[in-house]
Amino acid sequence: MTDVSISLSKPIEHEGKTVTSMTFHEASLGDLAVTDAAAGGVAKTILLLAALSGQTEELVRKIKAVDLDAILEKVEPLTGNFFKANG
User: What Rg, from alpha-carbon coordinates, does the chain have?
Assistant: First the structure.
């Protein structure tokens, strides 16, 4: 599977830069393991999206909720059964 890029409907301002799109790679076990410390589903999603995009958790927290569905639709196939298993 290849990387997927997603254009954000709401740009993110982070550290003096404007982020208009994000690219995510196929998950490794290491990427999935970073979510182990998180207690809730949203927290796990934030940590996983940060790992898959190579971006910071702080940047990923700025993604608008309206963009999350589009991101998850494209990213879910890259994560095996992660989202089904972790709700």
Answer: 12
Range of the domain at 78: 4-82
Strands (E), the chain: 4-14, 17-24
Q: Which residues have C-beta within 8 Å of that of residue 20, sequence separation ≥ 6? A: 7, 8, 11
In-domain check, residue 66: yes
pLDDT-based confidence at residue 85 (cuts at 50, 70, 90): low
Q: Considering its fold, how many domains does the chain have in total?
A: 1
Backbone angles phi, psi at 70, to 5 degrees: -65, -40
Q: Is residue 87 part of a domain?
A: no
**Can you tell me whether residue 15 is helix, strand or coil?**
coil
Q: Give residue-wise pLDDT tens across range 15-62.
A: 999 999 999 999 999 999 998 888 888 999 999 999 999 999 999 999
In a domain, 60, yes or no: yes
- Rounded to an integer, what distance in angstroms lies between the CA atom of residue 11 and that of residue 62? 9
